[in-house]
């Protein structure tokens, strides 16, 4: 069983979906697909005259403030346009796709802070009605039911908040949690880079493989957001996912390439597994 | 088993969803919910600077031209905002809702005309890439799987076209076809009127009941779009649906009210059934 996350950057657009669809049509293994939609979300927000409001949390993290109209735009971009265009492309290629958000069937529940103390443009603020949150629990029952009956679930954030409002949760985190609870053989992350790079500005600086038994050297060279990715991948392998691959979503047969070793593979080496 | 269609007019908004959610939470019968989204679609189109292009077909029918950007707006309004806000409201009320479009799992397939000869602003035109179409086939397998496992499917147009593009199909037609193939005990249509009216401008002119065994008098008084609705309801009853009710979606317990006889009920009278 594979969990495949397709990033929502502009570089993987409708042409990219066609590549994924053709590739998936030839794979017999059960698959859960998870996608982002950030490029479409930004474009829609801009067209609706809703520029991002960036806020800084008390811990110094900079995020986009998600009020109710912003959440509506997110629902429209992620669950409307991206999810249904992707499902249409997959179905046309013969993949028995079913599009869902993590709200549906209680797949994921998140939690938000009812009152958010933060800074906006350097000024302290107290904001209410934020729809950003953290993933709390996942329930794979609906996904298992669909997989057992030959469907390919195509899943997108948001999740459902405890009070019944949609909550913007991180798509990578959602993929990691689901891959773990479903005990996936592989978890593939596709984005607009060839994999994890030693130097983010140099696509030739690809890290081929990280051995989860001795990850120190990989962590020593990792920087910024890459540290988070490596740590999350190591955690997933630790908790039973066969391997995690960070791979290029812009190429012709992205899934086959990732499964055959292109990109960065994180796994325990065979020697360690047999110990 | 009930099939319930909630109209997409502005009068049934998020307040209305809360009423439906509370009402559904108390119903033990399996339910498929189908919703529209026309008010949200129009509002989004207006905000995106995409006014409707009205075209007249060779048969004289006036419809909205649905090019690819218009279809994207439809996906965003119907499958994004309306579907996921409704599912969130239902889940918060304890209903185990799963939001889907008719594209997902091959629920409905439609057909479009690749080349459309029509008139726009009185001038003859040949338009390509129209995403409006007619419903061809429905496949209730996914809905049955969900119903058998305790989920409440929440379904919206569009359907999938044969070439893999989304097709705008009529939500009432979709509800009728699914109620028929699922052999529903009841098919309830909720809109912003108390039911079928003899005089559309007079809400007191409600038709209480239409006997499907002798519909002549109802058809004699029906006018315009009401004729289409009455004929469709009669057809559904003819093909095995228990009863069709046209009822008010703006009231506090809309489903209970419709089931208890408020609105217009179309069915065979008991005497005829026992013949």
Describe the structure.
With 275 residues, chain A is an alpha/beta fold. Chain A has a single domain, classed as Acetylglutamate kinase-like (Carbamate kinase). Chain A has 9 helices and 16 strands. In chain A, the strands form 3 sheets. In chain A, strands 5-10-2-1-13-15-16-14 form an 8-stranded mixed beta sheet, sandwiched between helices. In chain A, α5 (171-181) runs parallel beside α7 (225-238). Chain A is globular and about 50 Å long. The two termini of chain A are 25 Å apart. The interface between A and B is large, with 40 and 40 residues.
The largest inter-chain interface, given as chain pair and residues per side, is: A-B, 40 and 40 residues
The largest sheet of chain A has its strands arranged as 5-10-2-1-13-15-16-14
**Share of residues in helices of chain A:** 25-40%
Q: Quaternary arrangement of the chains shown?
A: homodimer
Supply the CATH class of chain A.
Alpha Beta
CATH H level, superfamily name of chain A: Acetylglutamate kinase-like
Query: What is the helix/strand order of chain A?
Result: EHEHEEHEEEEEHEEEHEEHHEHEH
The mean pLDDT of chain A is 91
Low-confidence stretches of chain A: none
